[in-house]
């Protein structure tokens, strides 16, 4: 057995084998007295007192990391924010704070990943809109599903990383930043046709590499 | 029994640098109770310390609050998960909303805001929009382009235009048509081409530069073909007339984008009505003396601001732009 690795951050003094039991009303099991309170627990408690306040806290805690995570899949700032927003809206409309058994964090990250997956599938395979389905199923927390999702964003990153430098630059300015072809052409000193060419090349590389999924 | 795993190893994994053996270890580890939660805890921490970008949380939350304030419909449809229909959460909400749609103007706006993305230009503004299929739209002043947030490019490419815009449309490998819908139930369908659409209260006009276009209206449902160098006009009764562009018009697109105004002792009040019909711009002239001033002459303008700027000099008035309308007021710096 390897010794406990030294952690640099204060909130990692928790016993790694402590099971996390976030159901409302159940006290955290075996939390050492000197551990920082788990944010999740606090959010849940706030939901219990005032749902709107709980929701805002939930949003402010998770919006940014979720957007960042979504961007690894879709490589588009605006779409990433849209997808995450959709998940949050759904959360409120379905009053999920009353019926999620896992941590909100686990739910939100999983829901966002699934949404990104269906978005990419739609974008590159032209799946009809009716097939987009973001219901949260219980086997979404199975290890192989989790790692499959991880593999997806890692694949996207690898594909983009492998693009030739100019192509990569153009692609990121267009897709991630949302800049117009004109702006990109001006910024990089190329023609608009050149920009178009780079982007279609990048998209076909991405499409090919995702087809394997 | 328990697979020990450090946060560092997970971080290495998140960064895409874990070895095959490490990944196997992680998979094992994830199978043990409680570790999934730990995984997400560390994922959140990793994202927070290695963000891809930093969205504006305050703005985003305001946006969410606005979207949620939409006329409330108790979501009794959504929880059960409507039998059979897989759905974006909006869909069930919309089924309930459909009944109240026409009664509460607000409901329509929010449904529209959720399902569609709007690009708008104001007075004297213009912008270029790039669509997800690579097509480009140059939106002129006082115009609105609407397109579906999701599904654009999946079943078809449909956009909705009020105002004036130039289009450069990409040809899709699967020959997916691109359709511009105009408020008078006109439709311009293309495969991949360059064209310009003008659509306001007084009618719709389409000018084709390259490619092939089909145009139809509520009155003429069977689409007509247009060739490059032609202009189609859809009159208010829905009849479509197609005619070739003149030589001057062919040489310079600016020419056919220009609107001609002939004023002969026309009061400013009447001229404003004309501007409203042509540009869709709301103009208010509160001062009766100013409204009665007359203007004579022939003018050419592509956008309202061009004409108003000329008129303001002729008629000693100032143009005040605010919100979605323009006010014309007498110029108080009278040097009489």
The quaternary structure here is heterodimer
Helical content of chain A stands at 55-70%
Q: Radius of gyration of chain B, rounded?
A: 28 Å
The total of helices of chain B stands at 12
Unreliable segments of chain B (pLDDT under 50, ≥5 consecutive)? 71-110
User: Largest chain-chain contact?
Assistant: A-B, 73 and 63 residues
Q: How are the secondary structure elements laid out?
A:
The complex is a heterodimer of chains A (213) and B (336).
Chain A: H1 39-49, H2 51-74, H3 77-93, H4 104-125, H5 143-161, H6 165-176, H7 181-188, H8 192-211
Chain B: H1 7-14, H2 20-30, H3 35-49, H4 57-68, H5 76-80, H6 89-100, H7 105-115, E1 116-120, E2 127-130, E3 136-139, E4 144-148, E5 157-168, E6 178-181, E7 187-190, E8 194-200, E9 203-210, E10 213-216, E11 224-226, E12 230-234, E13 240-244, H8 247-251, H9 253-257, E14 259-267, H10 268-279, E15 282-285, H11 288-292, E16 294-301, H12 304-314, E17 317-322, E18 325-330
Parallel strand pairs in B: 5-6, 15-18
Antiparallel strand pairs in B: 1-4, 2-3, 3-5, 4-5, 5-8, 6-7, 7-10, 8-9, 9-12, 10-11, 12-13, 14-16, 17-18
Helix pairs in contact in B: 1-3, 6-7
Describe the structure.
The complex is a heterodimer of chains A (213) and B (336). Chain A is 62% helix and 0% strand. Chain A is mainly alpha-helical and 213 residues long. Chain A starts with 38 loop residues before the first helix and ends with a helix. With 336 residues, chain B is α+β, with helices and mostly antiparallel strands. In chain B, the strands form 3 sheets. In chain B, strands 1, 2, 3, 4, 5, 6, 7, 8, 9, 10, 11, 12 and 13 form a 13-stranded mixed β-sheet that branches. In chain B, strands 15-18-17 form a 3-stranded mixed β-sheet. The longest helix of chain B is centred in the N-terminal third of the chain and has 15 residues, at 35-49. Chains A and B meet through α2, α3, α4, α5 and α8 of A and α1, α2, α3, α4 and β2 of B.
